[in-house]
């Protein structure tokens, strides 16, 4: 079903306090005997002012859930409210527009455009939104300064360290001031020190009262940067934990061992 | 015959042989061309293009003389050869000013060496006067085959050529008509049309395949970046415009470079007396049109690929 009451070109203003409400979401791939159900009735809330960590074994559906929340993948069943907007009911074009206006993305492999400088990469979301080039670059440089890369604004990605590249990607995700930040394993390609720096930045973003951050991660060393940890296994949320207050596994042991006891998948705010 | 107001000047009916001559023709220089064999004193035979110039005006003479003066053609048995004749008939030791050879058993004495542009047939040119040329060449009943006409300002030259045809029975052409007639003759009666045409078609197909494949590969290699842009809210339409802009920007830059290099090559080649070089607006337009077709093809296959890209690939 599509929302017909709004013009395709109009912005879709978020109205609700909760950042993300996922209700009974089912998502499958393939057909017939080859059909694989990846999400099996997901229920999940993400609050404004929260950094939620999404953890679980590989193949458990984390990336699919992230894509569904971003409106990149269509769901088969269920409801999906993002910042008060029923995303599942929007057309493809309006989803794309909504995504551009309200969401920021940090990818595991950064996906910076190699021919553009750091500042130009950061300016891309603003240019997509129609901001003038000079304004976009000015705001991009300001954002790079906020992530500690003010002196690297004119560097090409190839001339930056991987940690710096990921911080450029974060600056790009934040420059348009999105209310929902979606991060796919942002520390996976980084060493421990750079991983901590990146997570500290994301935690600060998540603490803003009108924003929310969702981070998919395998890295238990950074669990303490989150507010809650949602555990996803075989397409189901099997537990939601409060995040630990201190680093969980200094050596980077993968898993949720040591987390506070789960309050169960139904324990929603 | 009534005098036509289209023609002015004294008539020279003797030049037109048995044909009736329009009155008041401004100028009637004659030009003779035939392919004959020249025999050198060492016994070698060479095929030559014998050009007979109007002895009064020497219209049709070579633009540049490397050695000697073209006016010396008016001396007995005189011929002027071009630099290709020197090159092909034995070199500067064999063919030089003063060399004597035979054309149809008749004596020819080199009085000058001309610099001319090589033509497609690439046969050495030997210049003589019209009167001597028709002696050198095998006898023909008629030695006038067409008239090249030019009109006074304000006079329609097409009307002039029409009247010449009517009144003389000869072929009559304007300069432009004769140029195209020559081009058509070369394309139809020599291998140039097929060879050049095949080369151009192959170049177009190969260009399209290479440009299309290169651009397509560029798109495929950057699918993740395109996916990231889609994920960040860029519409497929915007990405398609980016692709089109890239394809046509690269195409126009390539067009400029290609035309520039081709022009440079042509100018250098022409200045060295090699093949003549002509670059016309219709040719440039045709090439630009072909380039746009190649760019459109390249952009289209990339856009088709791009439209199928799921932004979810950035999360894999």
Helix-strand makeup class of chain B: alpha/beta
Strand order of the largest sheet of chain B: 1-2-7-4-6-5
- Bin the strand percentage of chain B: 15-25%
- Helices and strands of chain B, in N-to-C order? EEEEHEEEHEHEHHHHH
Give a description of the structure:
- The complex is a heterodimer of chains A (269) and B (316).
- Chain A has 269 residues and is of the alpha/beta class.
- Chain A has a domain at 47-60 and 92-242: P-loop containing nucleotide triphosphate hydrolases (Rossmann fold, 3-Layer(aba) Sandwich).
- Chain A has helices at 62-69, 92-102, 118-128, 133-146, 162-174, 192-206, and strands at 20-29, 36-46, 50-55, 77-82, 85-86, 103-106, 180-184, 212-216, 228-233, 236-242.
- In chain A, the strands form two sheets. In chain A, strands 6-7-8-3-9-10 form a six-stranded mixed β-sheet. In chain A, strands 2-1-4-5 form a four-stranded antiparallel β-sheet, with helices on one face.
- The longest helix of chain A is centred in the last third of the chain and has 15 residues, at 192-206.
- Chain B has a six-stranded mixed barrel. In chain B, strands 8-9 form a two-stranded parallel sheet.
- Chain B has helices spanning 83-88, 130-136, 157-168, 175-189, 192-221, 223-231, 236-271, 281-307; strands spanning 31-39, 45-53, 64-68, 78-82, 100-103, 106-115, 125-129, 146-148, 171-173.
- In chain B, β1 (31-39) and β2 form a beta hairpin.
- Chain B has 316 residues and is of the alpha/beta class.
- Helix content of chain B is 45%, strand content 17%.
- Chain B contains eight helices and nine strands.
- The model of chain B is unreliable at 1-21 (pLDDT under 50).
- In chain B, α5 packs parallel to α8 and α7 (236-271) packs antiparallel against α8 (281-307).
- The longest helix of chain B has 36 residues, at 236-271.
- Chain B has two domains: 13-174, no CATH class; 192-315, no CATH class.
- At the A-B interface, α1, α2, β6 and α3 of A face α6 of B.
């Amino acid at each position: 079903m599509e929302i017909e009451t709004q013009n395709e070109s109009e912005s879709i203003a978020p109205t609700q306090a909760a950042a993300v409400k996922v209700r009974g979401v089912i998502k499958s791939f393939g057909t017939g005997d080859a059909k694989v159900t990846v999400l099996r009735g997901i229920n999940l809330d993400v609050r404004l002012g929260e950094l939620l960590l999404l953890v679980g074994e590989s193949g458990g559906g984390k990336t699919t859930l992230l894509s569904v929340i971003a409106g990149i993948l269509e769901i088969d069943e269920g409801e999906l409210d993002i910042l008060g907007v029923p995303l599942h009911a929007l057309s493809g074009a309006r989803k794309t527009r909504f995504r551009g206006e309200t969401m920021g993305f940090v990818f595991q492999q950064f996906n910076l455009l190699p021919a553009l400088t750091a500042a130009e990469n950061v300016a891309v979301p603003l240019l997509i939104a129609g901001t003038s080039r000079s304004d976009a670059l000015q705001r991009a440089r300001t954002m790079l300064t906020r992530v500690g890369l003010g002196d690297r604004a004119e560097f090409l990605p190839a001339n930056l360290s991987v940690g710096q590249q990921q911080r450029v990607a974060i600056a790009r995700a934040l420059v348009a001031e999105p209310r929902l930040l979606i991060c796919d394993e942002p520390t996976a390609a980084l060493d421990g020190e750079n991983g901590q720096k990146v997570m500290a930045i994301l935690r600060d973003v998540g603490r803003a009262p009108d924003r929310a951050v969702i981070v998919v991660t395998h890295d238990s060393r950074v669990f303490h940067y989150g507010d809650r940890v949602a555990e996803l296994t075989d397409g189901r949320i099997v537990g939601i934990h409060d995040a630990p207050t201190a680093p969980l596994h200094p050596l980077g042991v993968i898993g949720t061992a040591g987390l506070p006891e789960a309050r169960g998948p139904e324990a929603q705010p | 015959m009534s005098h036509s107001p289209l023609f002015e000047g004294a008539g020279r009916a003797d030049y037109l042989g048995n044909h009736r001559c329009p009155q008041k023709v401004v100028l009637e220089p004659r030009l003779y061309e035939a392919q004959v064999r020249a025999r050198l004193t060492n016994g070698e035979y060479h095929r030559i293009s014998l050009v007979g110039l109007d002895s009064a005006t020497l219209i049709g003479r070579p633009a540049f003389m490397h050695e000697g003066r073209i006016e010396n053609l008016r001396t007995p048995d005189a011929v002027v050869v071009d630099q290709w004749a020197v090159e092909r008939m034995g070199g500067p030791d064999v063919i030089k000013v003063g060399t004597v050879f035979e054309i149809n058993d008749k004596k020819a004495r080199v009085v000058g060496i001309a610099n001319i542009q090589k033509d497609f047939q690439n046969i050495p040119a030997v210049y003589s006067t019209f009167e001597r040329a028709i002696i050198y060449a095998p006898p023909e009943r008629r030695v006038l085959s067409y008239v090249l006409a030019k009109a006074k300002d304000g006079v329609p030259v097409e009307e002039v050529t029409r009247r010449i045809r009517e009144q003389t029975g000869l072929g009559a052409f304007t300069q432009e008509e004769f140029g195209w007639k020559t081009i058509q003759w070369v394309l139809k009666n020599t291998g140039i049309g097929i060879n050049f045409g095949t080369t151009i078609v192959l170049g177009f197909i190969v260009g399209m395949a290479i440009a299309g494949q290169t651009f397509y590969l560029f798109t495929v290699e950057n699918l993740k970046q395109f996916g990231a842009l889609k994920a960040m809210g860029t519409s497929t339409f915007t990405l398609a415009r980016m692709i089109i802009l890239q394809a046509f920007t690269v195409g126009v830059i390539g067009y400029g470079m290609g035309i520039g290099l081709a022009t440079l090559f042509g100018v250098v080649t022409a200045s060295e007396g090699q093949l003549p070089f002509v670059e016309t607006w219709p040719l440039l337009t045709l090439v630009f049109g072909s380039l746009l077709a190649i760019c459109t093809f390249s952009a289209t296959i990339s856009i088709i690929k791009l439209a199928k890209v799921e932004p979810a690939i950035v999360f894999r």
